[in-house]
Every structure is written in C-alpha cells, then in structure tokens.
Design goal:
The complex is a heterodimer of chains A (574) and B (201). Chain A has 574 residues and is mostly helical. Chain A contains 16 helices and 2 strands. In chain A, 62% of the residues lie in helices and 1% in strands. In chain B, helix 2 runs antiparallel to helix 6 (136-168). Classes of the chains: A mainly alpha (574), B mainly alpha (201).
C-alpha cells in the first residue's frame, strides 16, 4: 500500500493514523497521571504530617503553601483535582481512548478507524480540556474545590469558597471539552467495531478487549449526555444566576443568596447517572486486557468466553440502574434505596463470573511470569479485594455508617483506580512491542510490579480500618478530633507507602521512554499470541498490514490444543 | 491515496451489520446520544417542577394556538424533508434540492416564530431570574429547553444549507441528504416531546 510522504506535523501531531493517535493519548494520559500522582503525594503529606511546614514547597505554591504550611483551601483543591485528573484524564484516557484507538483496528483487522479525521479531532479536543484543568491551579482562588463530584451548592455559588470561583468555571469548561472528545471517540469505536471487521471475524470471535471497548463506547454514549445536561444547567447557575440546583435560604457568610426553587439533589442524580457507568468505562477495558493477557501467558483458552461476553453486557446494562447507591444518605426514600441495593448487589453476579473465569483460566496452568502476566494477576487480586468491600458499601444499612469515610476511599482505589491502573500497566507491557517495535525491560518491569503491588496494598488496605474507625473522607486534619488521634501512626504508614508507590512509577516512566529507543527489537509476535493484532509487522506502518488484511479463521484463544505441535494456533491461520 | 480512503479501500468484512453504511450508523448513534441530552434536561425539568409545586398554568402564559402552529410548521418541514430524501434516493436531484430548500424555509419560519415567542415572553416580564407567574425555575427551564432546542434547529438548518449549497454546486449525494434528513427528523421529534411535556402537561 502506497502512502504519500508524511511531514513531521502530519505524522506526529495532526496524525490520522489510529496508532499514532493512540500513542498521543498515552503521552497525554501519562503526563496527566504524573501530575495527579504528585497531587496524591501532597495530599498524603498533609495527612501523614498534619500542618508541618515544608518551606521548599512555598516556592511552588506561594498561596496554597504559604510559609510551607498547607492551607485547608489548597488541600480541598488538591483532592478535587486529584480525583478529576485521575478518573477522567488518566483512567479514562489511557485504557479507553489510548488502547481503544491503538488496538481496535488491529484486533478486528481494519486499516484504521471508521472516521480517522474525527479521531484526530477527538484527541485535539481533549488536549485543551487537559490544559484548562491544569491551568486552573494558577488562577485567582485556586483550582476547583468541590470534590470531583462537584456537588452544588459548593460548585454552583461563586462566592462559596475560593475554589468555587474561576477554578470551578475552568473545571466545567475542561469537562465539557472532555465530554465532547469522549463522545466523538465513542461513536468512532462503536461504528468501527460493528462495520469494519475483517472477513470471518464474527462478533463472537472478537477478543474480549474489543468486546469491552465496544460496550464501553455504548456506555459512554448513553451516560455522558447526563453529565453534559447537568454541566449546562450548572454553568447557567454559576454564570447567569439561575437556580436549577439551588433552593431558597442559602447563606454564604451573612448574605442570603437570592436563589429559590431548585434542588441540589438533581445534580447528584445527573452526575451519578454518568458517574456509575463511568466506573465501568474504566473497569471493563482492564477486564478485557486481563482476559487477553492471562490466556496468552497461561497458554490456555480463556475459560467461559461466552459467559465473559454476557458478563460484560450484564455489567454494562446494570451500571445504569445503580446510581442511587451513591446517594443513600442524601435523603432518599428507604424503599427506593432498597431497590438500588438489589440492582447493586446484582452486579456482583457478572463480576463474580468474570473473577471465577479468570481463576479457572489460571488454575493448574503453567503460568509464564512476565511483567504483563504479573499485572494481569494483580488485577484479579485487586478486583476481588475491591469487589468484596463493594458488597459492604452497596448495602444501604451498612453504607449509612461507612458513607464518606476512608472505607469508601479504600474501596474505590482498589476496584476502579487499582484494577483499572493495573490492567492498563499489564496492557502496556503486553502490547508495547506492537506499539514501538521494541521490548520493555522485563527486569525493570518486574521490579515495577512488585513495588507497585506491595505498596498499593500498603497504601489502600489500611484505609478500610481508618474508615471503620470513623475517619472522614476529604478531612484536612484528622487530629482535630480526639478519637482520630490514635490513628496517626496508620496515616503516617500510609503516607510513607504512598511515597514508595509514587517512586515505583518513576521506574515505569523510565522504562517506557528509554525502551522506545534502546529496547531489544521485537519480533512480530514475541509472546506467541493467537490474536489477530500479532499478524501485523513488528512496528506496523499506516494501514497496519502490507498487502491484504488477514481473515479471521477462529477465535483468538486457541492455546495448547491437544494433538498439535505448536501450543497456539493464530487467529489468522486456517 | 487520501488518508480517509485507506480505511475504505479494502473493507473486507462482507455484508455489514444492519446493512447500512457506517456514516449512517454513526448518525443514528449520535442521535441516541443527543436524545439522551434532551432527556437529561426534560427529566431535570420534571424533577424540579414536582419539587417546586407552584407551577404556572401554561395556557395562561403562552398562547397554545400559537405554539401548536409552530409545531405544525416544524412537522410540515419534516414532511418536505422526507419528500427530499425520497427524491434523492430516486435520483431526482432537482426535486430533492427543491424540497431541501422548502425544509430550510420551514426551519427559518419556526426559528422566527420562536424569536417572536421569546420576545413576547420577555415583554410580559419573564426573565432568566424570575417571572410574574410563579417559581423562577419556570422561566429558567423555558429558556434553557426551548433555547437548546432552538439551537438544534439552527444547527439542522445550517446542515441543510450545506447540503443545499453543495447540491447547487453539483456535489450532492443521496446519502448526505439522508443523513441530514435523519438529524432533521430527530430535531422535530424532540420538539414534539418539548411541546407535550413543557407546554401541555
């Protein structure tokens, strides 16, 4: 296939090639993740050493860390932006936009996405969003400070707290860019997967990664409009003085606000109607990666492929019926609450199907312990830990006790953040040879895994104890309460573990960028995988395959068939 | 070979699902997304209205005959659009173009009528921050829902203008007319919901 010569700009910046766009997303998401990680370190700094002066930080944040001591307003901005950046700009961008773009055409046998131009546009729509979010730290009043959930009235009244002013406006603008970009991406994913599959690739022959991306595309298209509607109303409330989310009788200081007629609960409903599917937008790709990785390195067909696909659909469908479980303490009718308990616990069933299918895939297999498979196993571990605590929180009687405590923080860092992140790491180690034509260092990869895995449990597991002991989420200094003072050693331990966790990620960043140039050159199929993407050359050019696109003769999980010489049969071989 | 053509050059997937092109399929998915955006706004309106209680009687604020006329204009434009799509499908470019222009005319009449309605509403004292009839959220939702819909009509008219101008330049495709038509029907359908839920109920 012939291509016109591409200049630097059309190749690396305004590229139409889905692989280059995927890599651009990687770079963006990793940069944002790095910033989000620094914010997390600062949060832990305050909780581990409450209100101690760190003079050198004054140079970086002259207002927030005046004379080196963190102000409460700055702390509130920190966790707000940590959540926003991590949830949307790392955990959504890396596995969904990054890997989705990179893998979907390769896995389904297409030259590119259905709409290459739209694809490029979606990337260059999210970039300004990311920049605006970062810039908001440096404006008057600092970044948004109403939590990543942006609950009114804190987010709707400009004079509520310093971060409610310009910072919150920029937060909204950044999110609108993100939603626009994600909608374009989702449209592209769904249409590409439905219409551009190669010969013989029936839906039920698709890799589970592609299945996950397909359902994620649909979830995004159905859930983000709710946030867009909410954001529109919130913008009106903030900028034009309407009161969609604001009831009468709100005082800011001694001033009675002129609003009347609205209800802050409305925002919570709109937000969580997006917010809960968003959790699965993050989780489902990680589940897909894990399935592909475990099958490859256990040299086993994935156990229960059909039930895996149905489980993805079941999780996706149920995710729209559970948003109320975030609002048990918002004054919900107990009867309605019970309904949400039932739907929430129903999600445990498809989730358990997935966990058990992974376990049956692993069971008695001769596992090849590569960095990728270690991270795949890590996902299973984190997913089970986080899933079990989810059952506590999904039951309203227990949730009323645990709501807004560190138990919740521990829970979602395991299931959504942790499993999502480990899945993405595994995927990077697994598909890196196809991305850059070189291998990542396995030695550094394994060091990275063990530091991350151990430190991750050390940081987030004790949070469950903190939560049950009553430590509130988002608290600036727990020591103001006498009953929380004995917990200070636990907080210190978590803080030190968090520093280790952050330092461990530097190994990954080093490995990722240095291996691009110095890594061992990869062959086209270094892991002896059966998936269609491995039929492309080691570092595929624009168009992915030289000559014709290979057809799919089978599913991508034919490993260790009895009576065959090779322990795998590639998808593209008859 | 252009970059978009690379993706289209060797599509080998056999019969595509649902037997539609991916452009058309994407328009359908986009419509679903957009419909949910309106659903979000209309549900918000329902929640706030129920929570507020003192909602004005719409027939005392608006002239429902006038709103019904607007609805009639918009639905008529949907009919002309359908004729345009059918003509394009049959290869009658001239007829198709004529119907598209008629649809555009319908869209502009609707927008003009809406502008008049807004003027009237504002002159009667309805503002973004309050109104003489009851809860301030009534006029707020009026502006945001009809405004957002009007913005969609404007977008639809713009799309149709592009189609019509391209047709006049001889660069016209039946598929393009159909996709624009799909969007236009969607915008009209949303108005039916707005009319029913905001003005009548």
């Amino acid at each position: 296939m012939e291509h016109e010569k591409q200049g630097f700009v059309s190749k690396y910046i305004f590229s139409f090639d889905h692989k280059m766009i995927g890599k651009q997303y990687f770079t963006l998401a990793m940069s944002m993740g790095f910033i989000g990680g620094i914010l997390a370190v600062l949060i832990r700094l305050q909780l581990g050493f409450p209100s101690q002066p760190w003079p050198f930080l004054e140079n970086l944040f002259p207002v927030g860390m005046a004379s080196g001591i963190m102000t409460p307003e700055f702390y509130v901005s920190l966790f707000t932006m940590h959540g926003t950046i991590m949830v949307f700009f790392l955990l959504s961008l890396l596995p969904v936009s990054g890997f989705g773009n990179f893998l979907i055409p390769l896995q389904i046998g297409a030259r590119d996405m259905a709409f290459p131009f739209l694809n490029m546009l979606s990337f260059w729509t999210v970039v300004p969003g990311a920049i605006i979010i970062i810039i908001s730290f440096f404006v008057e009043g600092g970044a948004a400070a109403s939590g990543w959930t942006a609950y009114p009235p804190l987010s709707a009244i400009r004079s509520a707290i310093p971060g409610s002013d310009l910072g919150q406006t920029l937060w909204l603008v950044g999110m609108i860019f993100f939603v626009a970009s994600f909608t374009m991406g989702g449209l592209n994913f769904v249409v590409t997967i439905l219409n551009l599959r190669t010969k013989g690739l029936r839906m039920m022959r698709m890799p589970l990664t592609t299945w996950a991306q397909f359902v994620v595309g649909i979830l995004g298209l159905l859930s983000f409009p709710a946030l867009a509607a909410g954001a529109l109303l919130l913008t009106f409330d903030r900028s034009l003085g309407t009161s969609f989310f604001l009831p009468a009788g709100i005082f800011i200081g001694d001033t009675l606000m002129p609003h009347e007629g609205g209800t802050p609960l409305l925002w919570q409903h709109l937000f969580w109607f997006l917010g809960h599917p968003e959790v699965y937008i993050i989780m489902l790709p990680a589940m897909g990666f894990t399935s592909d990785i475990l099958a490859t390195f256990c040299r086993r067909p994935i156990f229960g492929y059909r039930s895996m696909v149905y489980a993805i659909w079941a999780i996706g469908t149920l995710s729209f019926l559970v948003w109320g479980h975030h609002m048990f303490v918002s004054g919900m009718s107990p009867f309605l609450g019970s309904l949400f308990v039932v739907t929430t616990l129903a999600i445990a069933i498809p989730s358990a199907v997935k966990a058990f299918n992974w376990l049956f895939t692993i069971a008695r297999a001769r596992i090849q312990f590569t960095s990728a498979s270690l991270f795949g196993l890590g996902v299973v571990s984190l997913f089970v830990t986080g899933g079990l605590t989810g059952i506590f929180l999904g039951t309203n009687a227990v949730d009323i006790q645990l709501h807004d405590t560190y138990f919740v923080v521990g829970h979602f860092h395991f299931i959504m953040a942790g499993a999502g992140l480990f899945g993405a790491f595994g995927a990077v180690y697994y598909w890196y040879p196809k991305m850059f034509g070189r291998m990542l260092s396995e030695r550094l990869g394994k060091i990275h895994f063990w530091i991350t895995f151990v430190a991750y449990y050390a940081v987030f597991f004790p949070m469950h104890y903190l939560g049950v002991s009553g430590m509130m989420r988002r608290i600036y200094d727990p020591n103001v309460y006498e009953f929380l003072q004995p917990l200070q050693p636990v907080n210190l331990f978590i803080t030190i573990s968090a520093f280790v966790l952050f330092a461990g990620q530097l190994i990954f960043i080093y490995n990722y960028f240095v291996s691009m140039r110095r890594g061992v050159p990869a062959t086209a199929n270094p892991w002896n995988s059966a998936g269609l993407e491995w039929s492309a050359p080691a570092h595929p050019g624009h168009g992915n395959w030289e000559g014709e696109i290979p057809p799919a003769h089978r599913w991508p999980y034919d490993y260790s068939e009895p009576g065959k010489k090779r322990d795998f049969t590639p998808q593209w071989e008859a | 070979m252009s970059q978009t053509a690379i993706a289209q050059a060797d599509w080998g997937g056999g019969a595509s699902p649902f037997g539609v092109t991916w452009q058309k399929m994407m328009m359908w998915f986009f419509i679903v997304t957009d419909a949910l955006l309106f659903a979000g706004l209309l549900v918000s309106y329902g929640v706030v209205r129920i929570a507020t209680g003192d909602w004005p009687t719409q027939s005392e604020v608006f002239s429902l005959t006038y709103i019904a006329t607007m609805t009639f204009v918009l639905i008529t434009s949907s009919a002309t659009m359908a004729c345009g799509v059918k003509a394009a499908e049959l290869g009658r470019a001239k007829t198709a173009s004529k119907f598209v222009w008629l649809t555009i005319l319908g869209g502009f009449i609707f927008l003009g009528m809406q502008a008049y309605e807004w003027t009237h509403f504002i002159q009667d004292g309805g503002g973004l921050l309050g109104n003489p009839w009851g809860s301030p959220t009534f006029s707020q939702f009026f502006f945001i829902i009809t405004g957002f819909h009007g913005f969609h009509v404007l977008t639809g008219v713009t799309v149709l203008l592009v189609v019509a101008i391209r047709a006049a330049m001889g660069r016209y495709s039946p598929a393009g007319v159909e996709n624009a038509g799909l969007y236009w029907h969607f915008v009209d359908l949303v108005w039916v919901f707005v009319f029913a839920l905001f003005y009548l109920v």
